[in-house]
Specification:
Pfam families: MFS_1 (PF07690). By secondary structure, the chain is mainly alpha-helical. The chain is 73% helix and 1% strand. It has a two-stranded antiparallel ribbon with strand order 1-2.
Length: 497
């Protein structure tokens, strides 16, 4: 066994000062800085593109609705809502198998196949003629995109915990950009291509064709360029990005410092560990509220704005404004969160911003106030998803526990998202939908406080235990075990809150 392979099996050993893991105040060497820049290019950039095209394709149906999609296919309002719902059904069913597939097989190939599958489903929606065809295509779209959503777990294995909010911000930052680009394309298609061009397609058909086609090419790019999991990449003799032993050794060192275990396997006992953890359920409800708000509010945003009295074409342009606000907020909040090493406080602040936005949109029918409220809500939920995506993996040790926690959270997200496809059924003010989400955000504030309390107390107990062992001059025998053995209970593991 080489030195590199031996180092990947060492137990967890992190620097602890005064009982606290020293993670935030550290200077990177020039070699590590070069490695991180290369990881940003090879991993974060490619995963950002995956998210862009995923949300590019999934959100088109919201813009297509005000372009005549529902009328041309003779769908009732309930049938349209069911089409939205089926996406989340496929997403929920295929999520955990996706975690297993990317771990057991060649991850770039699994990601590429999934991208190509959902891009073809999106493209074929342009040619759907019946309700049943749309239902099946949306189900396939959800199954394909479920794999893309494992990106946060994949990215988390390449970075230290204090680097995650910014990287998740980069990845998820593509989603509001996708929404804004869809608004531009929808406006241009509605104005210049409706009933024109080869086949005389309707504007909504052109939208699905234009947005579905380039995604196939992106799938091939991901297959060719995306690295594997860190433990597999450091052993590969044909690595495209990381060729030197020095780089590979540094990848192993960073992974261990981030409290990851190289060569982790799927351990089904850890699934039960995740199920018993109350933090997992708290994260699930909190993340589901924020992500489902994005799903419901994002898909129905064109409908909300149209109900303010704007024409369909002008509506497409106005949808761009909230997405621009969301992108600016997302970048700013994720950078602040990583700079200060905080998750709970910024998440609580943006939750309050969302609450204010929903109160405004419920309280007044004024169009300007409605646009402002839409901007506030978008500026809250997008960075909220990023903070949750960064916080959840870094709060669950052990690959299978982390994957299970993410899967449980995704089930909650898709359940809440399915609910959101059904509650926005009372136009023009949509009081029921906005009211339900307002109540859930108030609940989320309480959950954030509860998670903060649980994690803080756990860290304090471990700090006290560490001091006790130090005073006795004895080493805690559990320190020789790995995170795969003990998960969060490892004496050197600390939560970031």
């Amino acid at each position: 066994m080489t030195d590199l392979e031996k180092s990947s099996h060492l137990p967890v050993a992190v620097q602890v000062e005064n009982g606290h893991v020293a993670e935030h105040e550290r200077e990177m060497s020039p070699a590590e800085k070069r490695l991180v820049r290369k990881q940003d290019l090879a991993i974060t950039t490619l995963m950002s593109g995956c998210f862009f095209f995923a949300y590019f394709d999934r959100g088109a149906i919201g813009n297509a609705r005000i372009m005549g999609f529902q009328e041309d296919l003779h769908l009732s309002a309930q049938q349209y809502f069911n089409c939205l719902m089926m996406f989340y059904v496929g997403y929920m069913v295929f999520k955990f198998p996706a975690f297993v597939l990317i771990r057991r097989f060649h991850a770039p190939t699994i990601y590429a196949l999934s991208i190509i599958i959902f891009s073809i489903a999106s493209l074929c929606t342009a040619f759907a003629k019946t309700y049943g065809q749309v239902i099946v295509l949306r189900l396939i779209l959800g199954c394909g995109e479920a794999t893309v959503q494992t990106s946060f777990l994949f990215v988390s294995l390449w970075y230290r915990r204090e680097e995650m909010s910014v990287r998740c911000g980069y990845v998820y930052g593509m989603t509001p950009i996708a929404g804004a680009v869809t608004g531009f394309i929808s406006y241009a298609v509605g104005k210049y291509l409706d009933g024109k061009g080869p086949g005389s397609f309707a504007s909504w058909q052109w939208l699905f064709i234009i947005e579905g086609s380039p995604t196939i090419l992106w799938g091939l790019i991901v297959w060719a360029l995306l690295p594997q999991f860190p433990d597999k990449e450091v052993k590969s003799k044909r690595s495209l990005w990381f060729k030197s032993d020095k780089e590979k050794r540094l990848i192993v060192e960073r992974s261990m410092a981030a409290q990851h275990v190289m060569d982790a396997r799927v351990d089904y006992a850890q699934m039960w560990t995740a199920v018993k953890d109350p933090k997992v359920w708290g994260f699930s409800i909190m993340t589901a509220t924020i992500a489902a708000s994005l799903a419901g509010f994002g898909v129905f945003l064109p409908t909300f704005i149209k109900e303010f009295g704007f024409s369909p074409l002008v509506t497409q342009l106005y949808t761009i404004i909230p997405y621009c606000c969301a992108f600016i907020s997302l970048v700013a909040v994720s950078r602040v969160a990583d700079h200060y090493g905080q998750r709970a406080i910024p998440l609580a602040i943006i939750t309050c911003v969302a609450i204010v936005g929903f109160i405004i949109i419920i309280a007044t029918p004024n169009a300007v106030a409605g646009i402002v409220a839409s901007c506030l809500i978008s500026a809250a939920v997008y960075p909220g998803v990023v903070l949750c995506a960064a916080w959840l993996p870094s709060s669950n040790a052990g690959y299978t526990k982390r994957a299970t926690a993410t899967w449980i959270t995704q089930i909650a997200i898709q359940t809440f998202s399915i609910m959101c496809t059904q509650i926005y059924s009372t136009p023009p003010r949509f009081f029921k939908g906005h009211g339900v989400l307002l109540g859930l955000f108030v609940l989320t504030l309480g959950i954030i406080a509860g998670l903060w309390w649980l994690m803080r107390n756990s860290n304090l107990r471990k700090d006290e235990a560490a001091r006790g062992w130090a005073e006795q001059g004895v080493r805690n025998p559990d320190e020789d075990k790995t995170l795969e053995d003990l998960c969060d209970k490892h004496p050197n593991y600390r939560y970031v809150w």
